[in-house]
Design goal:
Layout (H helix, E strand, L loop, with lengths): L4 E6 L1 H19 L4 E7 L3 H8 L7 E8 L12 E2 L11 E9 L3 H14 L3 E10 L11 E6 L4 E2 L15 E4 L7
Parallel strand pairs: 2-3, 2-5, 5-6, 6-7
Antiparallel strand pairs: 1-9, 3-4, 8-9
The structure holds inosinic acid and magnesium ion (MG).
The site of magnesium ion (MG) has 3 residues, from loops.
Length: about 180
């Protein structure tokens, strides 16, 4: 598994140090507010569990499952919600957690649907990684762990065809493993 990684971008200790800073900002910004965190599964699972344990607020946690990749390395352009219903966020502020901001389609679709159907007081996003690139859907995440180039990365929750999520670091997958 480790042999499939071309280059390590962020070691676990680097990630956790960055999460300390992100968590401090989230805690300061949402202090005294009713906060619901929505973790986008499966990619944000490890990120969410490390981040939220650093946020000393009485928040609520929900999860949302969406699919946009369908197993490849390019977003399919269609965002499918796996559940019909959304968390009840009436009168609450929502912070959506995702592993990575790439084309922007996933977070754009989630934020739009939440605003339209669940009508929370506010919707912001926190992503561990943001790719520096032209996005298909304009989307700004208020909190970004690290900016990276337009490369396909795995580990620390991020997968390629459901593999590599349990690597403790984030690295660039060797392109010959997915080039057709
Ligand atoms: P977007 O809708 O294109 O912004 O993509 C968001 C989703 O695509 C993320 O939640 C990831 O699951 C997946 N994704 C995008 N880029 C990568 C990558 O480099 N590695 C692994 N998954 C990725
Ligand atoms: Mg994925």
């Amino acid at each position: 598994m480790v042999g499939d990684i071309e280059r390590i971008l962020f070691q676990e200790r680097t990630i956790l140090r960055r999460l300390d800073a992100l968590a401090a900002r989230v805690a300061a910004d949402y202090q005294g507010r009713e906060l619901t965190v929505i973790a986008v599964l499966n990619g944000s699972l490890i990120f969410a569990s490390d981040l939220l344990r650093r946020v000393p607020l009485p928040l609520q946690l929900d999860c949302l499952s969406v699919a946009s990749y369908h197993g490849g390395t390019e977003s399919s352009g269609v965002v499918t919600f796996e559940q019909a219903s959304l968390p009840d966020v009436d009168g609450r502020h929502v912070l959506v957690l995702d592993d990575i901001l790439d084309s922007g389609r996933t977070l754009h679709a989630i934020a739009e649907r939440l605003r339209r159907e669940a009508k929370p007081l506010s919707v912001e996003a926190c992503v561990l990684l943001s790719k520096r690139k032209e996005r298909a859907e304009h989307f700004e995440a208020r909190y970004v762990g690290f900016e990276i180039g337009d490369e396909f990365v795995v580990g620390y929750g991020l997968d390629y065809q459901e593999r590599y999520r349990n690597l403790p670091f984030i690295g660039v997958l060797r392109p010959e493993l997915y080039a057709s």
